[in-house]
Design a protein that fits this description.
By secondary structure, chain A is α/β, with parallel strands linked by helices. Chain A has five helices and five strands. Classes of the chains: A alpha/beta, B alpha/beta, C alpha/beta. At the A-C interface, helix 1 of A face helix 17 of C.
């Protein structure tokens, strides 16, 4: 627990992509690490996700991409986050992401990318060390 | 948070600032500095919403039912606040808050505010924080607050003090636990919902529940629980049914509360319980704060193990030292 | 002098430390003797493990002889090599067509196209949800023109084409393919190929809204029935065990769940009055080949034996080829990792090997960049070359079932068969596969297994090079480049679709749509009327949506748009 508060994470998929095996595993592992995780599942549009981040006062937003859509949706997500003044929310991304996209995503505002194959220790530690609130 | 910040925050919430609402809830949920002040300021603006509880064992379909009820209330032009409580793991303290996923239709409806919280060890998920959160949402200004918690009807009886109308949700195939549950259900439920009523065994179960209600010793003048079927999940829109009757039932019950003196009684009991929870919370905080770093806790426990003391005497001593003669 | 001595001592210390580690590796023992799916193995297997003669007669037999443990054909690859059928799906129909042609020129022997997420959901390219994602993971076919573009100049009566769509939207796919073939003057009874058409598993690929169970069964079997009667060379289903395996389950569960689903279709076809001897010969499967070589081969052999028994004893098949477990293999995508990506070439090679040792009919090798992006031309080619090296250089094609008779493989085959029976009994106890899916029993199993697999890697029970052993810094670039799908491609297709909708003859369309609706209402096979509707420029979303509505579902799986047709 950071700042005497439990970490609240939203894990979600964006758009039509239906590969949710990884997202579900991440949810379970974060729960086992003591975090409170809202799982939004599949078929979410950008505005729905942002509304959830606001209403749940999330500390972390994790996007799961497994259909090559990361460069399409991330800018939209970042734009909406800025519009809603969600700068204190830690934005992380996971999935099938080429290394070439990592600097592009980071430039857009993603704090860290965790590719498929990442072990839970990495992202749990990262979240605990880097949440902004 | 400074005094001014809290004032500002509360004012914004009263003016309908959703983001401040969300933040205030976090503050209060985690007992962070300023939470008492928020609750003090928010309190006068509460008491106007109708509070509906939805409880039942896991797998009963509460979230899908809540989703449909939200839609019905919205069609009636009512604004809705929703608190979804999921269990925290007793081992890791973490939680998966997976109810919101079933309410996507309302994701962008400004007339609906949905918040997921973890039970954090509270029985049935009803901690002091849950009460506080409901109050803040009331102050924000909604007509209805729906609170969804886990409960099989045996231990989590507190929900009746938290809400005006309590829905207990069952599904067919719950077996012989019904016998053991009967006494509990009738204590808690204002509406008994038979969800997944299209499944085998539903009709028999409804009859069973109905007879339990009929044969129960319901005091004269008290509300008789209604048994209502519901089908929530069907890809075929035409198959979803029962919810107009449920809404009707909720309003009938609320009317009943208003007409009889029951509403006053509920208000009294709710506050009684709330006071108890806040008192317990504050006392515990005080004492642990006082004991922290002094090494006294260890000393006390060691002395009990060593036979020089007993738990009751220790507590008496702590209370004397830290409460009755408050040392800063 | 002393200084030099000191330096020497320091060096020696450093060297000692390194060699210690090195020697540990030299004497290293494996930390597990289980198969990937968790089955125990002995250190060695010998003839003492079973009565070989009896075992051979009853349970094994020659290739091409019941129960076909050793292969469905007596001469296996001597008679014909497996089809080298790389999956292709990228961008617009024109883009996909180009890649298909490329691989065909490089020696691919079977055509194989896969739908993108929008097409799998049964959405037209211009659907609001489709706008961002058309062509990202496959190809979207909205109308007949799209299918014409995809198949342009390709002699459909000569090639073998696998269409990978499942869900009820596979009916649209078949309608589109047949409409194009008929339009080009082909006799559809000569067409060779397959359609995946396994709608029951499809919810587990993330397409639940597109695959309501009862509609899936109905439309899926409409295709199966139609093809059985009209397209004798067409495999009307490839029951997809592969995608279930991708969820993280074991080899045993893969076969058990796959068989459970297959039987739902067979039961329905039998209910419709068909006999297994009629449709059995074109029933096929899509199988995973994961990284444990012998386990995968044994799994396939067990599946062949069990399937033959089911078809013969449970369904009364008498024709040999109605009892055949014929299958295509897709090497395991989930076993590949982006860390040290070139290692994936090796993994795929081993997996292709087990597919061939198992006697596969048609093979897709993943490209090494499967966990990174869509295949580039180079990586796609590399996958094909993997097959070609295997086929032409290694000699594994000389002999049918070369691992047959291996004491280990025969024991493992028997063991896996027994385990599959246990899981199938478990499925029966929850009411059969349809019930298991409907009650989400299967969802729970898949989630539990997926979490277990992750934990096995996290705690070192399963070792993956680059992930939990022999890790290295992240590579600076993807070795063979990154495949991008140009957004112009999707936009162009969306505009084309809108244009087609605008230009078509509405009256002609309505006549065909009315017929489709009437057939759906009457419970008839909807494929014939879908074919006619396709010719009148009906779209995927319109055809599938109309049938959905008749069955009480929302026209649109995403519940966003309404039917443009007024049928009253």
């Amino acid at each position: 627990m950071k700042n005497n508060k439990q970490i609240k994470v939203i894990i979600t998929k964006v758009g039509l992509d239906g590969h949710d095996r990884g997202a579900k595993i991440v949810v379970s592992l974060l729960k086992e690490a003591g975090m409170e995780v809202v799982y939004l599942g599949m078929f979410n549009q950008v505005e729905d996700i942002i509304q959830a981040v606001v209403d749940e006062d999330a500390d972390v937003l994790g996007l799961s991409y497994l259909s090559g859509e990361q460069l399409i949706f991330t800018p939209k997500i970042v734009k909406e986050m800025k519009k809603n003044e969600l700068n204190d929310v830690l934005l992380i991304v996971g999935g099938t992401i080429p290394v070439e996209d990592i600097p592009l995503l980071e430039e857009m505002g993603v704090e860290r990318v965790f590719r498929a194959g990442s072990l839970s220790g990495e992202f749990i530690e990262y979240i605990e060390k880097n949440i902004k609130k | 948070m400074t005094e001014n910040n809290i004032d500002e925050m509360v004012q914004k919430i009263l003016d309908g600032d959703r983001r401040m609402l969300a933040r205030a809830i976090t503050l209060v949920e985690n007992s962070r500095k300023g939470h008492r002040n928020i609750m003090k300021q928010v309190y006068p603006h509460t008491g106007k919403a109708m509070i509906v509880g939805v409880t039942g064992a896991g797998g009963a379909g509460k979230s899908t039912l809540t989703d449909i009820l939200i839609g019905k209330f919205r069609k009636m032009g009512k604004t809705v606040g929703v608190v979804l409580v999921d269990p925290s793991s007793p081992f890791t303290g973490g939680a998966m808050l997976g109810d919101r996923i079933r309410m996507k239709k309302h994701a962008r409806d400004k007339g609906v505010y949905i918040r997921s919280i973890a039970s954090r060890g509270a029985m049935g998920g009803l901690s002091r924080a849950t009460y506080d959160i409901i109050r803040i949402i009331e102050a924000f200004g909604v007509d209805i607050v729906i609170v969804e918690t886990l409960g099989t009807g045996q231990d989590e009886i507190d929900i009746i003090h938290l809400v005006h109308t309590c829905l207990v949700v069952f599904t067919p195939g719950m077996g012989d636990d019904i016998q053991a549950m009967k006494a509990g259900i009738l204590e808690i439920a204002d509406l008994i919902i038979m969800n997944k009523a299209d499944l085998e065994g539903a009709e028999a179960f409804i009859r069973h529940l109905q007879s339990a209600v009929t044969t129960a010793n319901i005091p004269v003048g008290a509300w008789t629980p209604k048994v209502l079927p519901s089908v929530c999940v069907s890809d075929k829109p035409a198959n979803i049914k029962g919810h107009d009757e449920i809404i009707k039932g909720i309003y009938e019950h609320f009317d009943f509360l208003n007409k009889s003196k029951a509403l006053d009684k509920i208000r009294f009991q709710r506050l009684e319980l709330e006071l108890g929870l806040i008192l317990k919370d504050e006392l515990q905080n005080l004492i642990f704060k006082g004991l922290k770093g002094t090494g006294l806790k260890k000393k006390y426990i060691t002395s009990i193990i060593g036979g020089e003391n007993d738990p009751y005497s220790v507590v008496r001593e702590i209370l004397d030292n830290y409460v009755l003669h408050r040392k800063k | 002098m002393s200084q030099i001595k000191e330096i020497k001592t320091d060096d020696a210390k450093t060297e000692e430390k390194d060699w210690e580690e090195y020697l540990k590796g030299y004497y290293e023992k494996p930390n597990s003797f289980k198969t990937w799916s968790g089955l125990d193995t002995n250190g060695i297997y010998t003839p003492k493990d079973f009565d070989q003669e009896k075992h051979y007669q009853e349970k094994v037999n020659d290739a091409g002889q019941y129960p076909y443990t050793r292969g469905i054909h007596a001469n296996m690859f001597r008679g014909r090599l497996w089809t080298k059928r790389e999956v292709v799906g990228i961008g617009s129909p024109a883009d996909t067509h180009a890649r298909l042609k490329y691989l065909a020129e490089q020696g691919g022997t079977g055509l194989n196209t896969i739908a993108d997420v929008t097409y799998e959901m049964g959405l037209d390219a211009d659907h609001p949800w489709a706008l961002n994602e058309v062509g990202l993971t496959g190809v979207n076919i909205t109308n007949i023109k799209d299918m014409e573009t995809l198949t342009k100049d390709i002699p459909l009566d000569k090639v073998s084409w696998s269409l990978i769509t499942a869900a009820p939207s596979a009916t649209a796919t078949m309608a589109q393919y047949i409409a194009v073939a008929q339009g080009a003057g082909y006799d559809i009874s000569k067409l060779r190929g397959s359609v995946q058409n396994d709608p029951l598993h499809f919810g587990y690929c993330g397409f639940k809204p597109a695959s309501p169970l009862d509609l899936s069964l109905k439309l899926g079997c409409d295709i199966m029935e139609y093809c059985t009667m009209n397209m004798p060379k067409w495999y009307y289903t490839t029951v997809n065990m592969y995608d279930l395996r991708e969820q993280g389950i074991t080899a045993v569960q893969e076969v058990a769940y796959g068989f459970g689903i297959a039987m739902c279709y067979i039961d329905e076809l039998v209910r419709r009055g068909l006999h297994v001897d009629q449709f059995g010969p074109r029933f096929s499967f899509y199988v995973a080949c994961h990284i444990d070589i012998f386990e995968e081969v044994a799994k396939i052999r067990a599946a062949r034996r069990m399937w033959a028994k089911f078809m013969k004893e449970k369904y009364g098949a008498t024709k040999p080829n109605a009892m055949h477990f014929r299958f295509a293999v897709h090497t395991s995508g989930c076993s590949l990792v982006p860390q040290q990506p070139l290692n994936n070439l090796i993994r795929v090679a081993y997996q292709a090997l087990s597919a061939v040792l198992g006697g596969v009919q048609s093979l897709h090798c993943c490209s090494y960049d499967e966990p990174i992006c869509l295949p580039t031309e180079s990586s796609h080619l590399q996958a094909l070359r993997t097959q070609q090296v295997l086929a032409y250089e290694t000699g594994v094609t000389n002999v049918a079932d070369p691992l047959g008779g291996s004491y280990y493989v025969e024991s493992l085959t028997d063991k896996i068969e027994k385990k599959i029976e246990e899981v199938m009994a478990e499925i029966d106890s929850v009411g059969g596969m349809y019930e298991a899916i409907r009650t989400e029993w299967l969802d729970r199993k898949l989630e539990d297994e997926a979490l277990l697999r992750q934990k096995e890697i996290e705690n070192g029970e399963k070792l993956v090079v680059g992930v939990n052993i022999f890790k290295s810094a992240m590579e600076k670039k993807t070795p063979l480049g990154v495949q991008r799908v140009a957004s112009e491609s999707g936009l162009q297709q969306i505009n084309d679709v809108k244009e087609q909708k605008r230009l078509r003859n509405w009256d002609k369309l309505m006549i065909t749509m009315r017929k489709l609706r009437d057939d759906a209402v009457a419970g008839k096979n909807t494929l014939p009327s879908m074919i006619e509707a396709t010719k009148a420029n009906a779209t995927t979303g319109e055809m599938v949506g109309t049938v959905r509505e008749v069955h009480g579902y929302h026209y649109d799986p995403m519940e966003m748009i309404n039917s443009p047709f007024h049928f009253s």
